[in-house]
From TrEMBL:
Protein known as: GyrI-like domain-containing protein
Organism in which the protein naturally occurs: Shewanella nanhaiensis
Domain of life of the organism encoding this protein: Bacteria
SUPFAM superfamilies, per database record: Probable bacterial effector-binding domain (SSF55136)
Gene3D superfamilies with a match to the protein in the record: Regulatory factor, effector binding domain
InterPro entries: GyrI-like, GyrI-like_CCH_Lin2189-like, Reg_factor_effector_dom_sf
Residue ranges of domain GyrI-like small molecule binding in the record: 20-208
Amino acid sequence: MSDKYEWRKKEKSLYIPKNKPELLEVPPSNFITLSGEGSPEDAVFTEYIGTLYSLAYTIKMHPKTMTTKPSGYFDFTVYPLEGIWDINDRAKADFLGTIDKKDLVYQLMIRQPKFVDTALYEEMLHLVKSKRDNPLLEQVKFTTIAEGRCIQMLHLGPFENESHTFEEMESFAQAQGLTRRSKVHREIYLSDPRKVAPEKLKTVLRFQVI
């Protein structure tokens, strides 16, 4: 019987919501992150994802081989890719209701277990750098993000149809006497778009409210 920590089982409220809006309090968590700008169809976007996963899997696998395990260490399933999305200032100034993908600003990230601290992160980053010549590793950051009060919902289907889900979430917020803090939002990717048909994609959508 495996003692591996499974986020899908242990943290359903954060990662496995229903396809209807719900209010929740999101606690602070540590993430490895990469920030960029432009269309997710650009080649560099895929490189960003690969860079984060190479580090995330090193953090998962290498401590198993260490004679002295990190304090509080436990085996775990790597968390899903997440992204915080916005548009650049120029696009905001000229916004007419339609978003051009080249104007997107994003922060991609993968959450880390509690035992991962700055020292362990730096050690694992150095290890990955020693094995791969990847300039993007210089841009990776280890940071704590606190979202607080949010509304989230499971979006089923293509990314292009997310506006319908956001409309439903915003109506729910108004009914609760809440206001969406900004158009910035988080996406958590439960499906791999390389392997899953667009109509079957599962994405958690979340935004902060006040």
